[in-house]
Write a structure and sequence with these properties.
The complex is a heterodimer of chains A (about 160) and B (about 270). Chain A is of the alpha/beta class. Chain A has helices at about 5-15, 55-70, 95-100, and strands at about 15-20, 20-25, 30-40, 40-45, 75-80, 105, 130-135, 140-145, 150-155. In chain A, the strands form three sheets. In chain A, strands 6-9-8-7 form a four-stranded mixed β-sheet. Chain A is elongated, with a radius of gyration of 17 Å. The model of chain A has no long low-confidence stretch (mean pLDDT about 90). Chain B is about 65% helix and about 0% strand. Chain B has one domain: Up-down Bundle (Ferritin), CATH 1.20.1260. Classes of the chains: A alpha/beta (about 160), B mainly alpha (about 270). The interface of A and B includes residues 50, 87, 115, 135 and 161 of A. The complex binds zinc ion (ZN). Zinc ion binds next to loops of chain A.
Amino acid sequence: MMTTYEQSVREMLAEVKDPEIDSVSVLDLGMIEKIIITDNAVQVEMLPTFMGCPALEIIKKNVETKVLELEWVEHAEVTFIYHPPWTSDRITAKGRERLKEFGIAPPPTQPGPDGEWHVDCPYCQSTYTTMDNIFGPTACRSILYCKHCKNPFEAMKPVSTIM
Amino acid sequence: MKSPQEVNADPAYKQALTELLYQLADDDFVLAFRGSEWLGLAPHIEEDVAFSSINQDTMGHAAMYYQLLEDLGEGKADDLAHGRKAFERKNAILLEEVNGPGHYLKEPYYDWAFAVVRHYFYAQAKKVKIDSLKNSSYEPLAQAAVKINMELYYHLLHWKTWFTQLASAKGEAPERMKKAVVKVCQDFAGVLTLGPKADEIAGFHLIEDENQLKQRWVNEMEKVFSPSGLQLPEVEMVRGDGRNGIHTTDLDTALETLSEVYRQDPAASW
Ligand SMILES: [Zn+2]
């Protein structure tokens, strides 16, 4: 059972966006693993998406600041844990929709047997796309190109434990 | 072993574990630094983006290992990364080597063939180790390996692609790749070895025996070398064993540059 206290923390977390994609929250991305409440202190256990992601420190600070806005909270602390590892299937359905709205293709749910993967164009939904650069502007994204509407676009890289 | 507390109650286990963690951390740390010196110098802009992303990941992996060492009471992770002297470092000598003559700010003559071969060979060796570490007797290390493996997957794919393309390209590329392979192999045994405490490290099931790891690495490399007609030379350790604290002046200058940045703002996160 989720307490009303925990519920209020979650509501705040829904307002903390990825600094690089300002329509997707840390909840949408599936980065929140556990919320531990002891009296007036809140500890949020988060799963880092990619270890080298420079946005992690900003996210940590933003989450702590946001949770502290709750009147009853006196201490807020984020700890990053990597067990369980973050995988791209943790992104919620709402998160996937919002990524698309932002022009970023959500990660494919099923990469092929050799790890190759395919996504549709987030603009025109065409399947006629090619990989331009598996490493995009940030650790978690790749750059693709739509041969149908001739737009370059980004996609979230699929990340799973079977790789 | 599930926790640092359990480890601290067993000094022999702890010694083997910290030894291995320093090797893993220092290897990633120094190679990520050498990689980052390529910023702005890679063959094209896409590669620049990709390479710096790989370096960031790799620096992140080093940070995970240093954190595991901090949890075991070895000191602050940042200090372990930036504050230790060259003779205290356990990284393989090959990984500290400069990218080429010149300085990254003035007249760099970096060798892309060397970069591709060194990073590809290293990524494959790291993959072999990470696969084994997933079954490490130290649970926090096994969990870190699962996380690292997901990112390493993309690194290996990236370097393997570069390697096979350049090795079979027209023009001078294959010749330069052959030279780079010979050069890298002269010191690559230093990457594959688990150093003077290898028996204890394998004995405590922290990772598999170094001969097994090496054989698995050779098998993986042969899959790429045989079809391309390239020869994989025997790997050696010509310049000595970095796991023993033996290093070249290249490491001194690397640490100097790194700590300059660190001293300017020791609180900055990296
Ligand atoms: Zn399109």
